[in-house]
From TrEMBL:
<protein>
    <submittedName>
        <fullName>Glycoside hydrolase family 131 protein</fullName>
    </submittedName>
</protein>
<dbReference type="InterPro" id="IPR041524">
    <property type="entry name" value="GH131_N"/>
</dbReference>
<feature type="signal peptide">
    <location>
        <begin position="1"/>
        <end position="18"/>
    </location>
</feature>
<dbReference type="GO" id="GO:0016787">
    <property type="term" value="F:hydrolase activity"/>
</dbReference>
<keyword id="KW-0378">Hydrolase</keyword>
<feature type="domain" description="Glycoside hydrolase 131 catalytic N-terminal">
    <location>
        <begin position="32"/>
        <end position="283"/>
    </location>
</feature>
<keyword id="KW-0732">Signal</keyword>
<dbReference type="Pfam" id="PF18271">
    <property type="entry name" value="GH131_N"/>
</dbReference>
Amino acid sequence: MHRPTLAVALLSASATYAAPALVARADIKCPIVFDGRLPTGSDADPSWLDTYATNAIYNPDYVKGNDIKWSEILKWPAVEASRFDGTNFIPFEVTISDKSIFQKQNGFRRAGLQFLKDASDGEGQKGVKTLHFSVKQDSARPLNLTHEYLNAWHEAADYSSNQIQFQTGQLIGKSAADKNNFKILDRNGKSLYSVAINTSQWQNFAIKLDYTKNQVQVYYSLGQAELKSVAGPTSANLAGGGQFQIGILKKPTGSSDVVNTGYQSKNLNEGQIYGGVFLEDSTNNCVSL
Ligand SMILES: *[C@@H]1O[C@H](CO)[C@@H](O)[C@H](O)[C@H]1NC(C)=O
Ligand SMILES: *[C@@H]1O[C@H](CO)[C@@H](O)[C@H](O)[C@H]1NC(C)=O
């Protein structure tokens, strides 16, 4: 049976301290700033996701369809744990459907998780921090790569741009040649790293953001392999504070006002599986690999 009070205690603990070393597949070796991993057992009754009283990990109210809850949006795929989840944490799948309309943004279909404690001028925007996430594809809920997707990003506090963006699909106005790739872009749309989507394995990404030097470094690995530096450090303008967001934002086709209008197919049932989501403190070049 699911016990909410236990879950809350567990979640608060995991948000504050590094993961217990004994069972993790790969240890997180740097201080965790925000822990977005979901504890094993937290899928039994996911209603804890929907209120501030019970969700110490993610903002229960944002950024999602007006008439759907996180306990309905997240699915629990039976896949092996990702590299930094071990046995204490479980993979989860962020899904989008026809209900994934946030406020009046009729062009987008979106479901984006925000770390609960991430504030526009807070710890996530200072010093040197590394965002980790692993992704896996669900053949039952494939993305439609004719569209542009924004899956993980850091949005500036004034919402005018994203300092860093992890995307896939056909980027609007760009070549379709790499539509099957994951792409990490800077705020000006310059590609920093690109790699083909793998439909069977976990793909592990880490993006080191040096706010003091305005530099980005990208780390990557497949499956359970150790991450390796694959790009940078590269100069990138990281100014402007803001927040991280992780999930799916699917842009429409055939529109120059993508937020509000454009084509989205009906009966949408798409998902992106995530694991090993956390932000770590990379002071002194500490990065968990
Ligand atoms: C993918 O998106 C395109 C453009 O919206 C649409 O025409 C097509 O039917 C979609 N394919 C699937 C399998 O949904
Ligand atoms: C996924 O990665 C595995 C292991 O490297 C490789 O054998 C396979 O071809 C890749 N599959 C796809 C669809 O990318």
